[in-house]
Write a structure and sequence with these properties.
The chain is of the alpha/beta class and 203 residues long. The chain has helices spanning 25-34, 49-66, 76-81, 91-103, 105-108, 123-132, 155-165, 182-188, 198-201; strands at residues 12-15, 39-42, 69-73, 86-90, 115-120, 136-140, 170-173, 193-196.
């Protein structure tokens, strides 16, 4: 199936989770950026917005130094204030954003076009996210992972169906590490690449 041009050129996206780090979070971000992933999603969405923004300022600077795309998460207003084009949204927030954009169309026509990522957990989610204007998707969780203890993985057949259902790039997430062959496996399913959290947060 034809896929639209990928706004994130590369197979690996790092995802942050500061609770997994043994060292300072910003030092960990530097170590991640040294590995040159295609992008880093600053996922610390549990932080209050003001704290998230303060952290984002520092992480954006580090990513820029290493030439790594920094994707902010959930806080769209923070991304706009900081001049970041990249934002990753859960599907409910993507719905809200697109409704707001439609209502303020005349105002937003002059704004820089955002690169919108969206997390999906079903084929229906994926189709809706694409229609809403998502630039890429993360689909999961594909393999068993401690981050989703007790929840069965959706597996590679699920990933294949998601990839077949949309024309935008899909990144697999969940239970994927370094050198375990899973990046190649998800690419064989039609994914553009994979998101990796735990392995990056503990390197």
């Amino acid at each position: 199936m034809y896929k639209k041009e990928n706004p994130i050129p590369g197979k690996i996206i790092a995802v942050t989770n500061r609770t997994l780090c043994d060292r300072s979070f910003l030092e960990q971000v530097k170590r991640v950026c040294e590995k040159k992933p295609a992008a880093l999603i600053l996922r610390e969405k549990d932080l209050p917005q003001t704290e998230y923004e303060s952290l984002a300022i520092q992480v954006l600077k580090i990513c820029a130094e290493y030439g790594v795309i920094c994707i902010l998460h959930s806080y769209l207003e923070v991304a706009e204030r900081l001049g970041s084009r990249y934002i990753h949204l859960p599907l409910p927030l993507l719905r809200v954003y697109m409704e707001k954009t439609e209502n303020e169309k005349k105002q937003t026509e002059t704004k820089v076009k955002m690169i919108l990522g969206c997390s999906v957990h079903s084929v229906e989610d994926a189709i809706e996210a694409e229609k809403l204007g998502a630039s890429y998707l993360t689909a999961g969780h594909i393999f068993a992972t401690d981050c989703k203890k007790g929840l069965p993985p959706r597996g590679t057949e699920f990933l294949k169906q998601v990839c077949k259902s949309v024309h935008i790039p899909v990144y697999a997430i969940g239970g994927i590490g370094f050198g375990d062959g899973k990046v190649d496996l998800v690419c064989e399913c039609g994914a553009e690449g994979a998101c990796i959290m735990s392995a990056f947060m503990t390197i």
